[in-house]
Design brief:
Layout lengths: L10 E9 L1 E2 L2 E7 L7 E3 L2 E3 L6 H13 L4 E13 L2 E11 L22 E8 L11 H7 L8 E6 L1
Parallel strand pairs: 1-7, 6-9
Antiparallel strand pairs: 1-5, 2-3, 3-4, 3-8, 6-7
């Protein structure tokens, strides 16, 4: 008997987030969605069908921060579930050549004429991330060194 693969309307996706470090700082992007307060995340986005994890990270960095970067390794995997949504986060480490400057890009999924959700890109000192609305929290704790080094961080329900 075949396994049931129907997702019952749940939005399921795989998100690849990229960690770039430079002189004690980590590159973050600021998002603002209608009706919500702005928050910070790692640059990244949804893995597209047929795309590898490194390709996704490279594409997202180019779209969001106008940076060309090279994949180095997978740091960890986590996931979260909310009503109607299940996302698997794959956090990777990337390297950029010296001399490139992060410049705010765009989110191609936002229809033309609508307010952008991507509103900022900034190098932030790891210590300063503690006081920011960074999402999800367990990824922040892992990349700033406040949690054990595990490949699977869990996460669970928000």
């Amino acid at each position: 008997m075949p396994k049931k693969r129907d997702n019952d309307g749940m939005d399921f996706g795989i998100r690849v987030g990229a960690v770039l470090r430079r002189r004690g700082s980590i590159l973050l992007v600021r998002h603002e969605k209608p009706g919500a307060e702005p928050y910070w995340v790692l640059p990244g986005g949804r893995l597209e069908p047929g795309e590898t994890i490194p390709e996704c990270a490279e594409r997202e960095l180019l779209e969001e921060a106008n940076l060309e970067a090279e994949f180095t390794k997978i740091l960890h995997v986590s996931e979260f579930m909310e009503e109607g949504r299940h996302t698997v986060d794959i956090t990777v480490e990337m390297e950029i050549p010296d001399g490139q400057k992060a410049v705010l890009g765009s989110d191609p999924e936002v229809p033309e004429g609508e307010a952008p959700t991507l509103i900022g890109v900034e190098w932030v000192a790891a210590a300063d991330m503690e006081n920011m609305d960074f999402r999800p929290v367990w990824i922040r704790e892992s990349i700033v060194g406040n949690s054990p080094s595990n490949i699977y961080l869990g996460g669970g329900r928000n």
